[in-house]
């Protein structure tokens, strides 16, 4: 059976949400992101993009390039609510849904042509989302995820595009290799140095040659350029929480030890959030005393996955909850009210340097283990690290629970 894969992407999502809240912003150049001098652009309206502004650019530079732009510090909670509205509509109306990010979705519509025209049904679904949420959304429809995603990019803004079976290579051929998913700055520069700027040149090259230059990634890139992608749509299941607990071999009142464990557990969970493209809006601390009485305290906070926000919050909760007169048997940290989205969404209040620091640390952890980069005061806190990705499948709620 031929596959029919739909890719949907909410256009300039953060900007569109802000315009729903304030119609005076319609038609004007908008920048969403950090409002300070060291802030970063998280989203730019099409009006601002005509000045050369793009996401990831420093806000200072963006303001210089587009001085008439209206700058808004983003609200992750607001965007997550709008994202959930779209997610709910899709879950009610499609057989298999994958939520790739806060504003991006894949749908497997294979076999639906027997009952509906897939393209017609996708168009009706798109208009339903626009009508019920007010958000502009574009889609691409083809036989695989790669071609559909690229088609969505070509359909924007606020439009739709279908690539017929057998026309994948023809559609991709005249496009820039930069439009292939997974081609970043470094890969693009390498391809340009080889004289490969258009997809058609990559299509004509022997697969082995591309693999020799770019390694295993070269083989994947060649397949995508030729419209080959067998990756499945992974059904979306929103995980509600992740947690980490520590039972001590000997009950303790050592405040320094307790705070180091809270810090280490929170740091590890924050890494798992970022690694799973998730954020949390609720953090809880749990304490079990030697008499087995257990207490917990939680606090709501704006969506984040940043250590420098989560760790101080966790420690503050712990100090409010802890009764220093009693011996502690167990401590735990729990993140709940999770939503999809990378740390990029939280840079409204942070600098680009901070974001790059997390990216660098997480890259090392992904390669060498979650304990390869840790805070100095947590170096003697053992058996905290957990490299298991809790957002693939349905693992146990508690990620680690060992005697210390």
From TrEMBL:
Task: Quote the subcellular location field of this record.
Answer: Cytoplasm
Q: Which residues bind Mg(2+)?
A: 9, 103
- NCBIfam families the record matches: PRK02406.1
User: EC number(s) per UniProt?
Assistant: 2.7.7.7
This chain's protein is named DNA polymerase IV
Q: Which domain of life is it from?
A: Bacteria
Task: Quote the function comment for this protein.
Answer: Poorly processive, error-prone DNA polymerase involved in untargeted mutagenesis. Copies undamaged DNA at stalled replication forks, which arise in vivo from mismatched or misaligned primer ends. These misaligned primers can be extended by PolIV. Exhibits no 3'-5' exonuclease (proofreading) activity. May be involved in translesional synthesis, in conjunction with the beta clamp from PolIII.
Entry cofactor note text? Binds 2 magnesium ions per subunit.
Q: Which residues form a coiled coil?
A: none
A molecular function (GO) term: damaged DNA binding
